[in-house]
Amino acid sequence: MEKEPLLYRVTPEDLAGHLLRVQLRIAHPHPQGQVLSLPAWIPGSYLIRDFSRQIISLQAECAAQPLSVQKRDSHTWQCEPCNGPLTIEYIVYAWDLSVRGAHVDESHAFFNGTSVFLMAHGLEHERHTVDLRAPSGKRNWQVYTSLPRAVGHPRCAREHGFGAYAAKDYDELIDHPVEMGTPQVVTFKAHGALHEMVFTGVAPNLDLQRIAADTRKICEAQIAFFEPRTRKAPFLDSADRYVFMTMATGDGYGGLEHRASTALMTSRTDLPVKGRAESTESYQNFLGLISHEYFHTWNVKRIKPAAFAPYRLDRETHTRLLWVFEGFTSYYDDLMLLRAGVVSRDHYLKRLARVISMVHRSTGRLKQSVAESSFDAWTRYYKQDENSPNALVSYYTKGSLVAAGLDLYIRHATNNRRSLDDAMRLLWTRYGRDFYRGRPTGIPEDGIAGLIREATGVDVAAFIDRYAHGREDVPLKRLMAWAGYTLQWTTPNGRPSLDVRTRIAHGETHLATVYEGGAAHRGGLSAGDVLVAIDGIRVGGDKSLDRLLDAYQGNDTVTVHVFRRDELRGYRVTLAPPAPTECRLTARESEK
To answer: Is residue 205 part of a domain?
Structure first.
């Protein structure tokens, strides 16, 4: 242990109090006083999260003597100078049930390194060793992480055991989350590479074998996509396995990518159970989440914008290219489900049509480009409010439509000899394959059009200017027609509309969004209003509003009563006629 430049010891402590005790031993601290900091944000989630606020206490000592520690800013501390090894001990409050932070209770412990590991300034490129300790009374717990075991260390962990793990530098240290507990686990190999799937939370009768079989197909399809010759998994540059860490909850959904693992959250009802073979839409959503985060192993974790090579985790780091990294990934996640054979073409077309409908429902797409949305992720996309659908566009969803448009445009221009696939493989070989082996570089802000032209021979600069940097709708109807598909807009039902998005809480119908220029907006209703009655008939929860509106025709005027705060108000609202708001994609007979 004396030879370790930096050694962390992490122990879940006071499980009911949700605490992690961390000790950091620095063999050779800076002689003028060691500076320490915790990241302000986590890669993949573009919002300043101030993880340091969860550090409850912090103290330092040298040669068994206490040292003073001064806070320099919200995320940074400085110790007084010392000659010998420096020991820092601190407590982290871990009660963030998300894929971004740390969560500890009597059932498990999960943490991202950005929430737990202080960075020792000036020593970022030294070897970092982590000694994971089991909490008291939980000797049956095991450890699941892609962080390599510390071979040669006297406490080197055994397979899934507590003990020592190691990273070559701080950037690697914080890119391997850790799960401790007694989860449900299944493993498989994809093109020879080991993958583990770890499910935490209550998920009875879980069909692990089915999930593993479907996930293996997705992983193999993606590995073969980027490495058609070698079939080599990308994460083998950093770990001996890939770990899917899934927390099953009542209604959660989300994921966060890492270089050899991903943290996922899903509703337990999305997961298949034994004895039921149907492929539900919710299970397809879960597989889409898996596909999305796994694709990030190439596109984001290794193929990066220049602004992220390297990450600067103490401040906002802006790029206009998130539409490439999240948007392209969102395009390929469902496409890989189709190519892997885990969804049918009809299911794929329905999923794509649903995204088109979602994007076109928001007038914000006409006010903000996906390049602007990318740049403003820190202050707008990750800080959405009730008016966001009227004011901004998602670089995920519209970015995926830009990717789809580019793919169709390239295929048409080259008579199907080239596609966006060729551009992705060029990005991989030039920027991604050796990212962690050499000097990392990223894509310049203005480089994507040139790279696509180099890969395909097609000049897409005007297309990108118009649909990624501009605010026009991608002409998917025309592009789809070239490829043999028909895009139609249909009216989902004959019901008039208030032009709102609602949410149900405590049996009440709340207006979550009032769409700009719609019936509710023109009638004076506002987001946050609680619907009470329409023409004197009470509005309850669930489908109550739909049932009431079924009694009316478009352009009928009704009296709507709402509670705004604690005030009862009445408005006269002219209902919008049924509108063609649902996209439908079908293949022409010759394409079937």
So the answer is: yes
